TrEMBL record:
A Pfam family that the UniProt record links to this protein: HH_AprE
InterPro entries named among the record's database cross-references: Beta-barrel_AprE (IPR058982), HH_AprE-like (IPR058781), MFP (IPR050739), T1SS_HlyD (IPR010129)
Domain AprE-like long alpha-helical hairpin: 125-309
Compartments, as annotated in UniProt: Cell inner membrane
Protein family per UniProt: Belongs to the membrane fusion protein (MFP) (TC 8.A.1) family.
Protein name: Membrane fusion protein (MFP) family protein
Amino acid sequence: MNAVTRHWSAVRDALDNERARSRSVLRTEETDFLPAALEVVERPVSPTARVTAWVLLGLLVVALLWLFLGRVDVVASAPGKLIPADDVKLIQPGSGGIVRAILVRDGQSVRAGQALVELDPTVSDADTAQAGKALETAQLDAARLRAILSALDGQGLRFTPPAGTTAEIAATQVALARAQLAEIQAGSQTRAADTESARAARSEAQIQAAKLNETLPLLDEQIAANETLLEKGYVSKLKVIEMRRQRLAAARDRDAALATARKAEAQIAVAGGNSSQSMAEARARILADLAKAESDARLRQEELTKATKRSSLQRLVSPVDGTVTQLAVHTVGGVVEAAKPIMVIVPARGKLIAEVTIANKDIGFVTPGQPVALKVEAFSFTRYGAVPGKLEQISSDAVQDEKRGLIYTARVALDRATIRRDGATVPLTPGMAVTADIRTGRRSLASYLLSPIDEIRTTAGRER
């Protein structure tokens, strides 16, 4: 405590002496009349050096305070470009073909549904016509077979042609159906005739057998009477033997007639079964042909649908309102390849976003929701400023870039899609190159300036 008191007393005495000396010093204009030697001694020291020293010291203190207390943004720069929020629309032909007409030019505004390019439809139209004819043939076959089935079921020949069938073709199909039905019925009639013939033979045999059955008792009586007469000697034995022979012949004829009747009965049964079998076989054949025709009709319908779709794709139209860019076809008669883009439609009045690529070294510090300053390459940001935005989405996996290595794709939502230029508001357009400064945090200037030294300190001395 005594030491502090002594130091404070010394400082106070020095200040008192300085004030006393200042009062005793002559003014500058008074020293002008003194001799040169006294003028040098008595003239007061210029305060410029002292003031300069104090100013420099103050600036140094302010600079140090700014270095340690001042904060700056830490940003991750990501290059990219502006794109529509709903993406551009690639126009690609569904199949290869020859260009018939180019209906737009690069930079032209188009409406949704407007024709862009027409391809030669000759081949696709031929395929469509061929598929249509094949479908018509299959449908006619199915309709004819249904009519035949209707006739076989006793409902008459009901032919219902497909829509669009001409009267001439319908008449031809009806005639063909009648011919097929007549063929089936002819086979049935032949078997019916066989049945009738067998029935007639059976009736004849049965009549013959009945007649012989009536004759046999009479012959038996004659034989008995003649045997009585033979015993009395009135007739010869040969006559009796002859009558017995006649009786045996009549019995054999009766048995033969009965056998013929049984055979005819069997023939009737066989003929009836054959007739039923023939009709069943004909019906089964018609049903099988109908199923095949209906299946073929369904297949042909699918082929016609595909052919019609291919024909419609020969006329490429715009899916949205927008502007034509990157037109790749310029020659009528040129060949285009399937699925190869021939132009791009940039949607009109769509919201713009920035699609940027983040370096692998920065991906650990960026998260969705961080503020972003977009510097548009077309407008110097030092003069026109940056467009504010917010990091909206980051891809979950990296892609390989030939120059930058592994990078992540991200999307930035813009707070506005315009920029001020010389007092006028200029809209931003898709395709403009931008650099997104993503603010990942803040740090002091001292930390920023000392970071290279710290990096060298931590890595130095490790080399062999």
